[in-house]
From TrEMBL:
The protein's name: D-alanyl-D-alanine carboxypeptidase/D-alanyl-D-alanine-endopeptidase
The UniProt record lists the keyword Hydrolase: yes
Record GO terms (molecular function): serine-type carboxypeptidase activity
Gene name for this UniProt entry: dacB
Homology family: Belongs to the peptidase S13 family.
GO terms of biological process kind: peptidoglycan metabolic process; proteolysis
Keyword line: Carboxypeptidase, Hydrolase, Protease
Organism: candidate division WOR-3 bacterium
Length: 311
């Protein structure tokens, strides 16, 4: 304890201007052991994921799994019914679709992502957050966290424009490259931003000649449209996105993809501070079919639970 108090004194001198607070609470004795700046108001951040974690475990259970269903209304029409699984990858989805097309003569695929709906821009977010991998747009069908990967590497000589590639190769991705190759050992000094509403990315700054390749995930402007393009190209069939007004015909489920158990998803969410995991889980706390916004309803469900728990 004495060592900890000395550490606090050191923290105060190093993090001048920062807000630091901590509490140790004895669950057995029902009392605080140590409080430091416990009465200060801090800006809520990723610690809110702890409330979402508790709510998800209480309301959904540790064994809950997101489900992506595949259903037919005929032998030629396939429906992908997204369940908002934040762990689903392009590789896993395409593998499943290729297996289905070997069993059925699929001509059209319909993407149904209404399991999650709500706001395009979350409250309080700045526009420059929206190209970041930590702030991807949420959708009912989430693939590779709704991002694409930009790979940057230096040119062959100092002063040359840097080289880049990206994956998957989507038609609407455009890279405006104004970054150059710096002298060796200059490090990685790249600034970038993605335009609002488009997968048009601007690169500035530079990369040292001796720097290794750098992989940067960037959020997609319209994930469902990007998923539609990729599936259509890979399978060679027509792919359509169902709107919120479209009603579903009578369907026969033929297969599904399940996510890992919720307890595993929560571990990664809190270890890596995955925002899209937290938002997807928050949306699943609501009844997707009967609420105007699953985000609003999820937040309300969490609030109601916290009140019941006396928090």
């Amino acid at each position: 304890m004495i060592l900890f108090l000395f550490s606090i004194a050191f923290i105060d001198s190093v993090l001048i201007g920062a807000q630091v607070g901590i509490c140790f609470y004895d669950l057995t004795g029902d009392s605080f052991l140590l409080c430091y700046h416990h009465d200060q108001n801090f800006l809520p951040a990723s610690n809110l994921k702890l409330f979402t974690t508790a709510s998800a475990l209480f309301l959904l259970g540790p064994d809950f799994r997101f489900q992506t269903r595949f259903a037919l209304d005929s032998d030629t029409n396939l429906y992908i019914l997204g369940g908002g699984d934040p762990t689903l990858s392009r590789a896993k989805l395409l593998h499943e679709l290729k297996q289905i097309t070997q069993r059925f003569p699929i001509q059209r695929i319909f993407l149904h992502g209404r399991a999650i709906h709500g706001f395009r821009y979350p409250w309080g977010w700045s526009w420059h957050y929206l190209d970041a991998a930590y702030a991807p747009r949420l959708s009912g069908i989430i693939l590779d966290k709704n991002t694409f990967e930009l790979i940057l590497k230096p040119g062959t000589e100092v002063g040359e424009t840097i080289n880049y590639t990206y994956r998957p190769q989507l038609n609407d991705i455009l890279i405006v490259n104004r970054a150059t190759t710096y002298p060796p050992d200059s490090g990685f000094k790249i600034d970038l931003y993605r335009e609002l509403g488009a997968n048009r990315v601007h690169l500035y700054g530079g990369i040292g000649l001796s720097s290794p390749d750098k992989k940067i995930p960037i959020s997609l402007a319209d994930p469902l449209q990007s998923h539609r393009e990729l599936i259509a190209r890979m399978l060679g069939c027509e792919v359509l996105i169902l709107s919120g007004e479209d009603s579903l015909p009578e369907l026969t489920t033929i297969d599904s993809i399940l996510s890992p158990p919720l307890i595993e998803i929560l571990h990664e969410m809190n270890t890596e501070s995955e925002n899209i995991y937290a938002e997807a889980i928050l949306n699943r706390l609501a009844n997707a079919e009967t609420t105007r916004s699953t985000l609003n309803a999820g937040i309300q469900a969490e609030k109601n639970l916290l009140v019941r728990l006396g928090i």
